[in-house]
Amino acid sequence: MALTLHLHPLSSYCHKVLIALYENQTPFHPHLVDLGDGKARADFAALWPTAKIPLLQDDARVVPETSIMIEYLDRHYPGAQPLLPTDDATCLEARLWDRLFDNYVMTPMQKIVASRMGSPSEDKERVAAEATVTLRTSYDMIERHMAGRSWAAGESFSIADCAAAPALFYASIAVPLPASHGHLAAYFERLMSRASVKRVIAEARPYLRLFPLKDSVPARFLSDASAA
Ligand SMILES: N[C@@H](CCC(=O)N[C@@H](CS)C(=O)NCC(=O)O)C(=O)O
Fold it and tell me: Mean per-residue pLDDT for 138-165?
């Protein structure tokens, strides 16, 4: 079987792996999964029980969890842009920031987005308020970390930046980046200007009408002509 990524073009975690694939122009077969369809979800869960997208698959195995997918691609489908730095200390830094972006930006962003689905409730408001506090703490942490840096770990684009781009794209729609955070803002612009990132946003665009925070998406991301 050709390298296959089971995905949905709107999903932030799918963007993370798509960015890794596009960085290295790795050929793959995209398989769109509609988790809202009972049969499609059941078929997908048969491949991997958590039924989370994305999921990577080739002849050798099924690879769950986006960080592991990128590590797998780096080892088995290497390209011009290594995403796990070869130097031990920089690699540790890249893996650390991959975890930080997933756990402290992606997770609270997902909670805020989920709180906007269905009818409002006090419980959802509480969860969203807590997630907003976490996101603001993360913005402060990234602002400090990015001072004097171009990328999250070392001198090159890495797995950490694959995680950062979709996390910050969606998080900044949920909770705008503070005007006071110049290093964070510059990093965000650097990410949004990356060809691989522009491509995933362009591919998500036809689906943005399904995004619960669609009315807050900045105009610059809504058309090819005005995209970052
Ligand atoms: N830790 C997982 C998280 C994946 C994840 O949360 N995917 C979301 C989409 S962005 C998902 O599948 N949501 C649908 C669901 O939970 O039913 C990873 O890194 O692969």
Answer: 98
